[in-house]
């Protein structure tokens, strides 16, 4: 998955216009505890696994049956979206799982493919999660108290799709005419919420 889904209501900006960086600080040795973060690194601008919009994951792009474990998530896509299942198989084939030591830090972005791995029985994975964003990127919200924390299940997304642009702005979606919006970002916004009316954003360009 990518982390942007429960940190913002919109879609990440193009790769070369980053707005945030996140960090996982490991407080244990994952060789002992398990639970190391697997990462699928981007391999240049033509990388087939990093072509937006990024919606090939549970809880995004209309896939409101959210599963937080590999077996159930992949079974869902194999049965209902075999093309996405094939895409995701490529992610697993390429992923790397570093062995994190006490004090190690993983720096990543909200638009990086990654996943958690199982914690060993009898152990726990202790980490500190940190994120930074550009000062004017108000659409990246604080994870714990923000409405975006409850994304992925379709309920919050369903309400958001029915709101007016002015109402969405109260939740952190830039108003039509804001500098964030261009045809590309609007198209990706629409891909994240199939059926949403994007015309107010297009008309304000």
Describe this structure in words.
With 205 residues, the chain is of the alpha+beta class. It is built from seven helices and five strands, in the order E-H-E-H-H-E-E-E-H-H-H-H. It has helices at residues 30-33, 70-80, 82-94, 155-162, 165-170, 183-192, 199-203; strands at residues 20-26, 38-40, 105-108, 113-115, 127-133. The strands form two sheets. A three-stranded antiparallel sheet has the order 3-1-5, with no helix packed on it. The longest helix is centred in the middle third of the chain and has 13 residues, at 82-94.
Question: What is the SS-derived class?
Answer: alpha+beta
Assembly state (oligomeric): single chain
Q: Sheet with the most strands? A: 3 strands, antiparallel
Order of helices and strands: EHEHHEEEHHHH
Radius of gyration: 18 Å
Number of helices: 7
Head-to-tail CA distance between termini: 31 Å
Overall geometric form: globular
Mean model confidence by pLDDT: 94
Strand percentage lies at: 5-15%
Features:
single chain; two-stranded antiparallel ribbon; alpha+beta
């Amino acid at each position: 998955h990518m982390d942007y889904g429960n940190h913002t209501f919109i879609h990440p900006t193009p790769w070369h216009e980053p707005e945030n960086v996140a960090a996982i600080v490991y407080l244990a040795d994952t060789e002992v505890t398990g639970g190391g973060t697997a990462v699928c690194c981007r391999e240049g601008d033509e990388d087939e696994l990093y072509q937006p919009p990024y919606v090939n994951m549970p809880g995004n792009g209309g896939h409101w049956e959210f599963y937080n474990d590999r077996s159930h998530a992949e079974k869902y896509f194999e049965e209902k979206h075999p093309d996405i299942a094939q895409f995701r198989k490529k992610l697993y084939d390429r992923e790397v799982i570093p062995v994190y030591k006490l004090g190690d830090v993983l720096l990543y972005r909200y638009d990086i493919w990654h996943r958690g791995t199982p914690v060993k029985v009898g152990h726990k994975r202790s980490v500190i999660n940190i994120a930074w964003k550009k000062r004017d990127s108000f659409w990246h919200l604080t994870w714990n108290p923000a409405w975006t924390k409850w994304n992925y299940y379709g309920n919050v997304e369903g309400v958001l799709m029915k709101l007016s642009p002015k109402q969405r702005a109260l939740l952190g979606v830039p108003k039509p005419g804001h500098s964030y919006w261009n045809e590309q970002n609007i198209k990706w916004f629409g891909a994240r919420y199939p059926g949403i009316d994007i015309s107010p954003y297009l008309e304000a360009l």
